[in-house]
Amino acid sequence: MSEATIISIVQKGILTIIFAAAPPLILGLSVGVIVSVFQAVTSIQEPTLAFVPKIVAVFLAIYIFGPWMLTVMRDFLSALLLNMHNYMAH
């Protein structure tokens, strides 16, 4: 297996991780910013007020985008396994 092939597989793996993790991370970040602005405006500094909405948003994102995330990961794994004979030939 050549170095270019290894780099290509690693790049595709990293992109797969980024695409699969993006929806929960983006939604959690967005809710965190909104809650932080709310806390700054109202001067409420309750830690659970920052944590609970973010965790609910992440779980909701996983529930909504979970099938798509699994499809992205499954497609990567499927392509990797189907081309395994090409990787082992060299």
Characterise this structure.
This protein is mostly helical and 90 residues long. The chain has one domain. 90% of the residues lie in helices and 0% in strands. The protein has 3 helices and no strands. It is elongated, with a radius of gyration of 19 Å. The relative contact order is 0.15. The mean pLDDT is 91.
Q: What is the mean pLDDT?
A: 91
Write down the domain tally.
Answer: 1
Nearest-angstrom radius of gyration? 19 Å
| Total of helices | 3
Structural class: mainly alpha
Count the strands?
0
> Approximately how much beta-strand content do the residues carry?
under 5%
Low-confidence stretches: none
Query: Span from first to last CA?
Result: 5 Å
> Percent of residues in helical segments?
over 70%
Largest β sheet strand count, sense and barrel closure: none
User: How do the SSEs run, as a string of H and E?
Assistant: HHH
Shape: elongated
Write the layout of secondary structure elements.
Blueprint: H1 3-42, H2 47-82, H3 84-88
Helix pairs in contact: 1-2
At a glance:
The chain is mainly α and 90 residues long. It has helices at residues 3-42, 47-82, 84-88.
